[in-house]
Amino acid sequence: MDELRRRIRVARGEEPADLLLRNAQLVNVCSGEYYQADVAIVDDIVISVMPHQAGSLPTLTAREVRDLQGRWLAPALIDGHMHIESTMLTLAEFARQVVPRGVTSVMLDPHEFANVLGLDGIRYVLESGRGLPLTSYVMLSSCVPASSFESPYRTLLAEDLLQLLEEEQVLGLAEMMNVPGVLSADPQVLAKIEATRQQRLVVDGHAPGVSGHDLNAYAVAGIQSDHECTMAEEARQRIRLGLWLMIREGSAAQNLDALLPIVQELHPPRVFFVTDDRDPLDIMTRGHIDSMVRRAIELGLEPVEAIRLASYNTAQYFGLQNRGAIAPGYLADLVVLDDLKTFKVAEVYKNGVLVAQDGQLITEIVQDAASIAGVTGTVHIGNVTEADLYMAGKPGLVEVIGIEPGQITTRHLQEEAPLRVGELVADPARDLLKLVVIERHHASGRVGLGLVKGFGLQKGAIASSVAHDAHNIVIAGASDSDILQAAYALEEMGGGFVCVVDGQVRASVPLPIGGLVSPLPAAEVVEQLRALDAVAAELGCSLEHPCMTLSFLSLSVIPSLKLTDQGLIDVETFTRIPLQR
């Protein structure tokens, strides 16, 4: 009561505020206006926003006054859906990179850690987000595994998730990828959705290609959003049905340019920005949610609307009624901009405290090395030999995964079989590589085999323990010996990326935390990634970031053809198929 009484008195000008930001050019995402104003803050809350009027004198006072001298003041940015594992950074290091860019809140789906470590993976993310100048909310991973065709560390059931639904930082159920399970009213799928809705939390969607009756059924099941749209008409369908459209701009899947026209046409209220999957090189060069704001403005969207899509709308979807705007009673997460159109960040305030200035974090983050002790040593492939990589074949067509540059979808191709004495083999001259997925959680020795087209690699092998969503070992290579060597190199370093040529490791990116994340600073991780990309390019690889592409080739819920440790999966029919008919 005393706290509220003081806030009322400050708002009326009867007591001094803690902080007064004077002479701001306010970006008001509630009204869609820009105007000069003074903003008063008490503790971590905006108390008063007073527009300047001709001839009037400032009436608010404060213990500390900062004159913004006409610079822009906007709400800080929120990422509505992302995976910290895709950044390959700890949450502490991620905060060092994105908070100076104006990002102060993120909605994390830790389903990568959940696939590798079960509930302990989700708890690790919850714990590692505490005490940072970045609010890390968690959406509980709905599909571990993503489908029955994938093999995680362990399956998470509805009763497993129930114990975490009441955690303060948990905002709902993460992307419901099991579309067939929803449409067939699978009891486990519906139990997860119902439990979440009973807590008045949100359920995120994931519905690539779903339309018509099935999209209506998906929505009526209680799912409220989708981030898998790649075309404007898909987006229109979802908006018309009341679903929230998450516009995604990741490193591999970039959909902003294609979807922004629907925003410019309809200006719908239920739209916000997400990054989903961004690697550290992308974050350090292009940025994070801030880059989406810049690009939207470049494409002609009014700056205040672009910022609204990255702040207020996101908060509204998640039921965070006092986030994402600069208004009385709202959390004082703010950015000061030198330039509005380029979203050039000068200062960042988190909970009313200045935490970043001129592109640098100015508050200390202490990372406890002991906190990762229980989340390492997760790669165990057992006694896999070259004999396990043998693919018996015959003359004729072979089912081939075709890479779609810039997308996480693939094409379902059929190519003439590359044969050698009754064995299907890689044919680099025709851009056909062997693709191998090895189960890595329980050393079962289970291996999935196939062929992939689109890497351009002429020799050697590229391997990754980042393989959405079960995160088994995935390897593309021109020779069995290099493929096998790459698998054991990953096991030895506890996971990550590796490039092997003629039996020698030419480049590597160790990711020992869950086989997904590095404990190193972002600059060092980026240097390692660049070195690996350079080696891959020398070997003929035509992809800008081959390991990012490789990591999605075993995701069995994204069309069209994928490979898991259980075999080749036709995602269109949701069935396992042979290499040759």
Automatic annotation (TrEMBL):
Transmembrane regions: none
Domain of life: Bacteria
EC assignment: 3.5.4.2
Group of enzyme by EC: hydrolase
Gene3D superfamilies: Metal-dependent hydrolases, Urease, subunit C, domain 1
Co-factor(s): Mn(2+)
Domain Adenine deaminase C-terminal: 407-574
Catalytic reaction(s) noted: adenine + H2O + H(+) = hypoxanthine + NH4(+)
SUPFAM superfamilies assigned to the protein according to its UniProt record, in alphabetical order: Composite domain of metallo-dependent hydrolases, Metallo-dependent hydrolases
InterPro entries found in the cross-reference section: Adenine_deam, Adenine_deam_C, Amidohydro-rel, Metal-dep_hydrolase_composite, Metal_Hydrolase
Segments forming domain Amidohydrolase-related: 73-355
Keyword vocabulary terms for this entry: Hydrolase, Manganese
Entry similarity comment: Belongs to the metallo-dependent hydrolases superfamily. Adenine deaminase family.
Annotated protein name in UniProt: Adenine deaminase
Gene name per UniProt: ade
